[in-house]
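Q&A log
Question type: sequence-to-structure
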Amino acid sequence: SNAINKSLLTLGSVINRLSDGSPGQHVPYRDSKLTRLLQDSLGGATRTVVVACVAPSALHGPESISTLKFADRARRVMARVRPNEVVDDSVLLARAQVEVVKLKRLVDRLRNLLAMHGIDPKQAQTQYG
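Response status: OK
Response body:
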């Protein structure tokens, strides 16, 4: 039971780190076997369902509230799931063409800057490139 409690505590820590939305923050997946096994599911790479079981009696109120808070944090993590993008060749070609246009505009702007400062672009290319 000690290992189960540690795994559940680590699961709570992982969900907390993922739900706060801070990029670059360390997520302790490797701190328990449970979170290590669930790493892909928790990290937003898959669609995951969390079932929260609560009791209707006042006797179990604090546990139910804690469970609902955990489920809400887990829901915030799961809400950021992005489906994998399926891209065909025509989409890749269109993106490449847009990138080529952007780069040509950048080259033109750089040539204009060189010309404004009295530098011949061809001379600058042979000197620096």
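Response note: The mean pLDDT is 83.
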